[in-house]
Amino acid sequence: MNTDKYVVVDIETTGHSPAKGDRIIQLAIVTIENGLITDTYTKFVNPRRKIPMFIQDLTGISDADVAQAEPFESYATEVYGKLQDAIFVAHNTNFDLPFLQKELQRSGQPKWHGLTMDTVELARLLYPTAISYKLQDITADLDIELGNAHRADDDAYATAELFLQAKKDLGLLPYETLALLHKRSFQLKSDLSRLLYEETARKRNSHRNDLDQFKGIPLKPRTKTPDKERGHYVPKTDWQDRLSEMFPNFERRESQFRMMSAIQSTLSDGEEMVIEASTGMGKTIAYLLPAANHALSTGKQVIVSTYTTHLQDQLLWNEAGIVEKFTGEKVSIALIKGLGHYIDLTRFAEILYGEDESYDETFTIMQILIWLTKTSTGDLNELNVSSGGQLLLDKIRRSHTRRPRREEQAYDFFGYALDQAKKADIIVTNHAFLLNQPNSSNSLLDNAGSIIWDEAHQAVQAAVSQYEKTFVYTQWKYIFGQIGTAEERQLYSKLKSAADRSGFASLAEMNRLDSLFIGFTVAFDRIATILSQDFAVKFREQKHKKNSLLLSELPAPTGEFAELLKLLNEWIDLSQTILRKAENIPEQSIEDHLVIADWRYWTQELMLKAVEFSEIFVFPANDEVSWVEGDLRSLPNSLSLYKRPFEVKSIIDRVTAPIRGEKGIIWLSGTMTVPSNDRFIVNQLGVPDSVAVTKYEPPKDFYQGAKVFVIDDMPDIQQVSQSDYIEAVADAVIRTVLVTEGRCFVLFTSQDMLRKTVDLIQDTGLLDDYMLFAQGISSGSRMRLLKSFQRFQKSVLFGTNSFWEGVDVPGDALRAVVVVRLPFTSPDEPIFKAKSEMIAKEGINPFMHYALPEAVLRLRQGFGRLIRSKEDKGLFIVLDRRIETKSYGQEFLDALPKVGVSKVSLEKMVTDIEHWYNKQ
User: What SS3 state is found at 200?
Assistant: First the structure.
């Protein structure tokens, strides 16, 4: 076989199964020899059957295109000849090669034999931070031209260029990394070990001096932020002139300038301010520029806190350049996240030099080895790994229970991030991390001159989540399965063997460890059985299979709780004693060292579980609520218990109270108020009544491209069955999508209703020409679904809670937002239920003072997805008639920007939209 010759193949087909009659409709082969593309071969193929419409839409290949082409049999001999004496390459060899083999076999050709290389596997390995490995996505990331995706000729050529680029990038890796990769490469699904062998052999005597190393693992070297003189800068407040000079097409926004000046003044005076800034205000720049002014002129840092780590990254990379251009100074902006975001290199090294247990684990280790030569942050969220790979990432996250030794500290990514943050002008972090800061000399708050809370309304949710405790049946059972008993060939058996060899634990100690483990796992099963039985009794009359209720509504087996905790704590104490003795053994084999490291990890996991268990079941607090969730079809496997605080004022006060009156505090959000209560959010945040809410509105014509429709002939959601309502929703969504030609968000409050609606729409076949992306159904994270939605002209995204806010789809990429139900929290939701009861005891109407304001805020956030600039045009369609039939409906409409509202039938809306588009 010629290892310098590769044939890159791509096929388009009528479907996925040649056994069921599917056939090739286009074939392309690109030949690479000695690193160069030497030949291209492409043919349309007559499948002798109709091409399904969705395939025609996907590929752009019609029946007419293949009508004059020959059937595959006419090309089979030529194709088989091109495959000889070469390595087969494709973007997903598991599809292209088996399909091609079947066609060759059907045409009388022998089965092809040879090495295969999959560019999906290669790209996942070599570019571990890419968001997507679909051909059009990864080629776009690498600036490789792809004319028409899903056309075999263009796809094959792009795949060939992708392969050559990846091969080149592989050759840039250091020898030590290549050697570690090659050692594991024999477990890969395609024959990439051949590539790795060739590159390792080529670089055997070549060593790079530009990388650091930790225990033989090459790392990208770190750049230290130098100390600099502070306090000699004069703040620049000629906002308009400087921004107009920086951006020739700068859009003047008077309210933005007023907001900048107000923030500047608040920071300078060490005061507190609450700002509601509508969409389109340019609020990020409006607070970053005053923040930079303040930090550079006073020498005091400004902390900017966002809700999600994604927003952190976005803020850092998108806006940092503008800040430096505006100030004319070098502005150091540091990003820091919670400890668990960062890799523990010692833990990774322990796993690296052990034996891998699965393909996912092996592959993720290889991805990390490449990533470590490129990452400056060590933030594991940068990696795009499989679900199996996520289990490995969880094992190598930095933990509060293990402090790095002195020799490790120079390579500790979290320590590095903390050091950078302490030297920065502006620190960008997230609410959860900020709320977890201690009031000590080591706190980020120590040198902070002020704090800006962006998306401040989400500080409430962040504080609640920060103190959430969970008891999830499957998580506990997974840990038990990893540890095992003496009769099972799991980690305990390996530890016992290591103890026999090294003598760090006696037979009596190991037997006692096993006995305690059996004791608390039996107690655990007994508790799970009791809870499941009581839970099932509560809901035996219910039609819904998934339910939740307050823990206080179930009989509490307190004796069993105490027994489990007693046995578990005894096991933890003994395990830690054994670990201390094991770690003092001077010389250990790599195998024993890894076993001890694994045992330490799972002991720490059970320590965390023990704390959560005690706080939920044994030592409940009065200001917290606990509830149980489960699916009656799969108890106890589906059993989950949660505990959260009722209110968060005291949690947030730990950060704000010590600095209030001395340092500037800015609370900033697009949705801080509702028409009936301007202080709905600020009261939850603990902001003093003396601090008013200042509102900044966008220009008058900002929402001129928006239109609101309320559909008045939808069935009343409270008068019909769920199935009837879903049928009406599906019809409304289909007709909306057809008239807008896609680019719609459809927002639900229930995952169950979303799933049933999508299923019904797919059953009709009326939107077969559209790409439908559904949260909880389509694979991928929220951001990946959003990116997929934006890629296609004719697409629809069905989302629940997390899509009501925090996603940005500017321009024509989003034409309509459809609200299926007014976003009220379910009255059976445990926290809502408990909080409502508490409010009612104070003589306050929980619906008017809690449920309604929350729903109104969420609707405002949903509208905010639609119009992101004054050039945007879009439709906001409400299907829930309660917005017009209930007395509280006007509260929702009053909360929206002043745009035209049409209360019309579905038929009339479709006609009006057609006219509206014609005018555009």
Answer: helix
The two three-digit tokens of residue 671, written as one number: 């949705």
CB-CB contact of 150 with 22 (8 Å): no
The answer, yes or no, to whether residue 490 has pLDDT greater than 70, is: yes
- pLDDT score at 439: 59
Distance from C-alpha of 576 to C-alpha of 573, rounded to nearest angstrom: 5
Task: Output the six-digit token pair for 699.
Answer: 């220009």
Q: Specify whether the CB–CB gap between 661 and 694 falls below 8 A.
A: no
Pull the structure tokens for residue 706: 């928006």
Least confident of 117-121, 490-494, 552-556, 663-667: 552-556
Q: Which residues pair with 707 in a beta bridge?
A: 875
Q: Which residues pair with 773 in a beta bridge?
A: 797
Q: State the residue for tokens 């020799």.
A: 407
Indicate if the alpha-carbon torsion angle 205, 208, 213, 219 is positive or negative. negative
What does the H/E/C string look like for 561-573? HHHHHHHHHHHHH
**Percent of the chain's residues with pLDDT above 90:** 51
Give one DSSP letter per residue of 263-293, joined into a string: HHHHHHHT-EEEEEE-TTS-HHHHHHHHHHH
pTM: 0.84
β-pairing, 706-711 with 874-878? parallel
For residues 236 and 290, what is the distance between their CA atoms, to the nearest angstrom? Answer: 9
Whole-number Å distance between alpha carbons of 456 and 276: 10
- Start-end of H helices in 424-490: 431-435, 458-466, 473-483
pLDDT mean across residues, the chain: 88
Which of 75, 115, 110, 89 lies closest to 7 in space, CA to CA?
89
The Cα–Cα gap between 377 and 336 comes to 9
- In angstroms, rounded to a whole number, what is the distance separating the alpha carbons of residues 736 and 58? 22
User: How wide is the angle at C-alpha 559 spanned by C-alphas 555 and 564, nearest 5°?
Assistant: 115
Write down the number of H helices and E strands in the chain.
Answer: 36, 25
**Beta strands 469-472; 640-645: pairing state:** antiparallel
Give the tens place of pLDDT for each residue, 322-361: 888 888 888 888 889 889 999 999 999 989 987 767 899 9
Alpha helices (H) along 614-750: 649-656, 680-685, 722-740
Residue 481, class by beta-carbon neighbours within 10 Å (0-12 exposed, 13-18 middle, 19+ buried)?
Answer: exposed
3-state percent helix, strand, coil for the chain, nearest multiple of 5:
50, 15, 35
What are 271's two structure tokens? 């005061």
Residue 470 has a CB neighbour count (10 Å cut-off) of 14
Model confidence band, residue 311 (pLDDT cutoffs 50, 70, 90): low
**Parallel, antiparallel or unpaired: strands 664-669 and 217-219:** unpaired
Distance of alpha carbon 468 from alpha carbon 896, whole angstroms? 33
Instruction: State the CB neighbour count (10 A cutoff) for residue 246.
Output: 11
Which domains does the chain possess? 5-170 (3.30.420.10), 235-332+424-457+648-699 (3.40.50.300), 344-411 (no CATH), 469-638 (no CATH), 706-919 (3.40.50.300)
